[in-house]
Amino acid sequence: ACISGAEIRERFLKFFEERGHKRLPSSSLIPEDPTVLLTIAGMLQFKPIFLGQASRQHARATTTQKCVRTNDLTNVGVTARHHSFFEMLGNFSFGDYFKAEACAYAWELSTRVLGLAPERVWVSVYEHDDEAFHLWRDKVGVPQERIQRLGEDDNFWASGPTGPCGPCSELYYDFHPERGHQGADLNDDTRFIEFYNLVFMESNRQQDGTLQPLAAKNIDTGLGLERMAQILQGVPNNYETDLLFPILNKAAKLAHMDYHKADERQKTALKVLADHTRACTYLASDGVLPSNVGRGYVLRRLIRRVVMTGRLIGIKGAFITKLADVAIELSPGCDPNVQASARRIKKELEAEESRFSATLESGEKRLNEVLAAAKNESRAVSGPEAFMLYDTFGFPLEITQELASLHDIQIDVEGFEEEMEVQRKRSKDSARTIDLNSGNLLGDLAAQFGATEFTGYTHIQGQGKIV
Length: 467
Ligand code: ATP
Ligand code: MG
Ligand code: MG
Ligand code: MG
Fold this sequence. Notes:
Layout: H1 5-17, E1 22-23, H2 47-50, E2 60-68, E3 85-94, H3 99-113, E4 121-126, H4 130-140, E5 147-150, H5 152-155, E6 156-158, E7 163-174, E8 192-205, E9 211-224, H6 225-233, H7 245-254, H8 264-285, H9 294-312, H10 320-329, H11 342-376, H12 383-393, H13 397-406, H14 413-426, H15 441-449, H16 455-458, E10 459-460, E11 464-465
Parallel strand pairs: 1-2, 4-5
Antiparallel strand pairs: 2-3, 3-9, 4-7, 6-7, 7-8, 8-9, 10-11
Helix pairs in contact: 3-4, 7-8, 7-10, 8-9, 8-10, 8-11, 9-11, 10-11, 11-12, 12-14
The chain binds adenosine-5'-triphosphate (ATP) and magnesium ion (3 copies).
């Protein structure tokens, strides 16, 4: 009776196709733009068109885009709605339709095509965007109690200090309408979930900061497939949708667990396994190889976290390909190329898993000694100790933290960072830096998608900035 993730995806793409949008494939997780580490949104493949650097082939397009966001890694399994890898459905207008149509389409799609109860949908607009406010209220007919004005941080997109920019408008689903309108906070994730973001690219910011109207106004949108599935399938988080649950359930079986009977800690672990294995599968499929720099390092750390997490919940022996098999089985609707590369993907994941398992085995003894000493002396694990585990045995800080927290032991993170800094200085000459700031791309994407908060992934130890 319940709508599948595949059906949601198809309804979205078909809806926009029927309204003159060219259905285009997802671009690779490795962006063409050399200044960006990984594809984090559907707009990336169209960025040259939005910036006026390339001419458009179609006036309108629609895609389902594979995305990886390292800034959401610490949210994985913790919030109900964040993944490292997810699918972003999008509709785009290149100097064609604008605000009124974008709002009307988003509403019709959400309520009529996908069937959300209209009274459950709230919208946010940029605080100074009266036009959007009036469109929602007077043209679409959303009661003004369910339209909130948000500030620049939330609802204004800019492609850097100068250049194309404009206000956003987001759609939210209300899980608890009985709580009423008074004091409702769209950022309260016990009540609301953001599912669709519309960017109205209408201005060009000048050197002096003033906004000039853009000749060709653009629309850039993103709807999270897993989030829509969560809402429509009536499950409490993205992980219990048909898009992810089979991977999670496989992990639970390997750990001889029942997800629904597991405690919160175990549930989080199973979610991490499902999320990260899926991300690793797609990264490997797109040609990323585990390494110590850039996107290879993102993949390496994801695989390591899978291996560690599996051990923590008692999975014995090599297992990553068993989970990857399920991710591959689920892949065709998102990316038809994954199945064809199944053997190569699994070979790579397995090789890294086995390398890391060997490291772990040799480091485990040392780690236990460090933890025992800290416990005996009722102190935190020192910076140099944590760094030694990282540097000599390849234990990423968050893994040491995870293991230490099982024994209620703290880590001196500042001390660890200091050691890291010393090491960074030492290896500066040999370091290869991938600077995403060049070309202002970091500025833009951070402005659109929220600044990166997870510093553990923004710097590659001794290698410089990656995100
Ligand atoms: P949030 O505020 O919940 O972190 P966001 O504002 O960062 O989301 P956008 O950058 O607006 O998200 O991306 C467009 C859409 O993509 C979101 O409305 C959401 O549906 C989806 N999305 C964003 N980040 C994630 C993620 N980490 N996992 C799953 N879906 C996501
Ligand atoms: Mg948001
Ligand atoms: Mg948003
Ligand atoms: Mg976000």
